[in-house]
TrEMBL record:
This is BURP domain-containing protein. Keywords: Signal. Residues 72-107 have a biased composition (Gly residues). It comes from Ziziphus jujuba var. spinosa. PROSITE patterns: BURP (PS51277). Residues 1-21 form the signal peptide. Residues 148-358 form the BURP domain. Residues 69-107 are annotated as: Disordered. It holds the Pfam family BURP.
Length: 362
């Protein structure tokens, strides 16, 4: 799908304006949470342009949404790119204006069309959204299935076969004002597809559709949910539920391995309180997190050692009450238990975040 030049230039204007008007995401974090360190799951989704503060810069993703006003790189001019897919360059000597679409890109001037932006894996229900029944593909192919376990197995010496995978979903945070300028609604799907040069009916289009649908679906009883389209909005939602002394934690693994046996080693740490906010990264064209409050839960930091010596510090959440979950949810099928009978726990992938009460404040 060709990307319309006027839309790209309009997007460029919005990004340029808001880059002057707002704090970069990590500075917003520090202003709201001065005593809370960023977990790796957050820092991995930030761009060095924000930290270095070279000129005016907004950078997101490996392809990113990137705005440079010429101070950051020699001969820069102005550059904007969206995801891995859409780029605008102006001001380079002898180059005129170039709009690239897709990973390899193409140009408006020559009429080439690139590939749609790739936003992640095939669509399917998230195992961490408890209103959904498991699909056959999920039961057989989803490595996250192995992350569910029973609370009785949460003790040193316990062994589990686990696969902590590095997500291929590397899309990073947009500044809040930029994210708010982009539609995020089921009734705006054609506009969203056009914004990111996604072909209707493609896998990418289905992923975008399903992610927005999950965000718009009603929450389960006793749960509050929110889809954060920026780091700032995630911080605001989480602190509104837990207070300004909230602590964010994420799973960290030495290296990616194949499915292997992991053993829980001593010094399992239980976090304070029975309420948390859990934020799960979604497949989308930029970083979107499905956040929900969880009551009657306990959060643990669990040290693990793999059969090959790999060390992990895994975040585990144990749900005391699963009575409102879908009876066909993947957890019940792999653990062979029924809703509301026993506590169900799960480890979180490395790109998910759990917010809890800071123990220092209690």
């Amino acid at each position: 799908m060709a990307f319309h030049l006027h839309r790209v230039l309009a997007f460029l204007t919005v990004v340029m304006v808001v880059s002057h008007a707002a704090l970069p995401p990590e500075l917003y974090w520090k202003s709201v949470l001065p005593n809370t360190p960023m977990p790796k799951a957050v820092t991995d989704l930030l761009q060095p342009d924000f930290v270095e503060n070279k000129g005016t810069a907004v950078a997101v993703g490996k392809g990113g949404v990137n705005v440079n006003t010429g101070k950051g790189k020699p001969g820069g001019g102005t550059h904007v790119s969206v995801g891995k897919g859409v780029g605008v360059n102006t001001g380079k000597p002898g180059k005129g204006t170039n709009v690239g679409v897709g990973k390899g890109g193409g140009t408006v001037g020559t009429g080439h069309k690139g590939k749609p932006v790739y936003v992640g894996v095939r669509p399917g229900p998230s195992p961490f959204n408890y209103i959904y029944a498991a699909s056959e593909n999920q039961l057989h192919d989803d490595p996250n299935v192995a992350l569910f376990f029973l609370e009785k197995d949460l003790h040193p010496g316990s062994e589990m076969n686990l696969h902590f995978i590095k997500s291929s979903n590397s899309q990073t945070f947009l500044p809040r004002q930029v994210a708010q300028s982009i539609p995020f609604s089921s009734n705006k799907l054609p506009e969203i597809y056009n914004q990111f040069s996604v072909v209707p009916g493609s896998i990418e289009a289905e992923i975008i559709k399903e992610t927005i649908k999950e965000c718009e679906n009603p929450s389960t009883r006793g749960e509050e949910k929110y889809c954060a389209t920026s780091l700032e909005s995630m911080v605001d939602f989480s602190t509104s539920k837990l207070g300004k002394d909230a602590l964010a934690v994420s799973t960290e693994v030495d290296k990616e391995t194949q499915m292997q046996k992991y053993t829980i080693v001593p010094q399992v740490k239980k976090m304070v309180g029975d309420k948390s906010v859990v934020c799960h990264k979604q497949n989308y064209a930029y970083a979107v997190f499905y956040c929900h409050t969880t009551e009657s839960t306990e959060t643990f930091i669990v040290p693990l050692e793999g059969a090959d010596g790999t060390k992990a510090k895994a975040v585990a959440v144990c749900h005391k009450d699963t009575s409102t979950w879908n009876p066909k949810h993947v957890a019940f099928q792999v653990l062979n238990v029924k809703p509301g009978t026993v506590p169900v726990c799960h480890y979180l992938p490395e790109d998910h975040i759990v917010w809890v009460k800071n123990q220092k404040s209690t």
